[in-house]
Amino acid sequence: MRGMRLADGVSRAVPDPIAPMPIRLLSVLTALLHVYIALRLLPALAALTPAWPLALLALAVSALTIPLPFVSRRIARNASVGDVLKWVGLISMGWFSSMFVLTLVRDAGLLLAWLASAVGGLQVQWNALLPWSALAVLAMATATSLVGFVNARRTAGVKRVDVPIRGLPQALEGFTIAQLSDIHVGPTIKSAYIQRIVDAVNRLGADAIAITGDLVDGSVPELREHIAPLADLRARHGTFVVTGNHEYYAGAHAWIDELRRLGLKVLLNEHVVLQTRNVRGAQTDEELFESALVLAGVTDFTAGHFDAAHASDPHLALFDAPPLVHTRVLLAHQPRSAPLAAAAGYQLQLSGHTHGGQFFPWNLFVPMQQPFTAGLHRLHDMWIYVSRGTGYWGPPKRFGAPSEITLLTLVPARP
Questions:
Q1: CA separation for the pair 200, 271 (Å, rounded)
Q2: Which of 84, 69, 100, 27 is nearest to 393 (CA)?
Q3: pTM score, two decimals?
Q4: How far are the Cα atoms of 142, 156, 297, 385, 414 from residue 240, in angstroms, in the given order?
Q5: pLDDT exceeding 90 applies to what percent of the chain?
Q6: Domains and CATH numbers, the chain
């Protein structure tokens, strides 16, 4: 049984998601920030080591290569060269991000030390503090980028989560959902990466598989072959997908068609009813309904900005759902769908979008936009689980927010 499907419309043209500002402005801005880092660190490093020109070289390479992902199509003669340019630029972007943030932290620390010296009479050994703190910034940015690269490129580990559902029917005890989210197939995530994820998920033997948006960063012609391994996902009730904001950047309607062609079930403000018990084995209609689960999916929270017909609606997703099926799970890309989902009567919402912050310090900014950053949370009578994501976006870097394949198990809530 399925809910009402919204009619497909035509997405409005939107800017390339990887180029949020004109490339010239971006290049000038990042160059100026590199100059700031150089002015703050290089004089101190020169006083400590004769190898300081290596830091200058690294900053110059970073400033020159960060624009490459945005211009690779124009300057590369073939796709392979373009991919190399994107790799170099995105790695530089991740290193520069840490360098910039840590330089700001260093300056804030030096300011506090100066105030403590001027006001409180603290004796500060500036000759040691300035050069060694500059070296610490360089070392920490490089180390976190190396560790973050390894974390991003490894196959996501399996995170097992029990979700206690009040009044869970016995037939649904132990029902498992394998969640994938925010894989971002694109410049640096290709078919081999996806195949490893598919193999890991299939080994779990989940009852259902949920992909909660931001699957791609590119068009269907560009990425069709790299997304193809998802057709091999196996679960008792199938694989279900909802759109994320990046699907709308990349051409949502074409991707919806492609995913359905691969055999995945895309839920656009609609639901399916998963029957966990053999219909012939049910003694009564009540037993039949109690052994079923409503799995609904909504379009991305911002989808209405791209296509009015795709405006996200957790209530509409339950249209014509059997009222006697009380266990209801919603797939919604962004956590901020949760208030409406809780009001609509779902017991569990599965989301992603945040990446858990992906790497410090961006995890500190997620709460400014989303009510939850990662993990299992309670909102009124509904649980919401927010995945840190199975891939990554932009720089191949994860630090302090490991990627995950989540295996959620429904269990009865304790009295």
A1: 27
A2: 69
A3: 0.88
A4: 39, 20, 8, 16, 29
A5: 79
A6: 23-152 (no CATH), 156-412 (3.60.21.10)
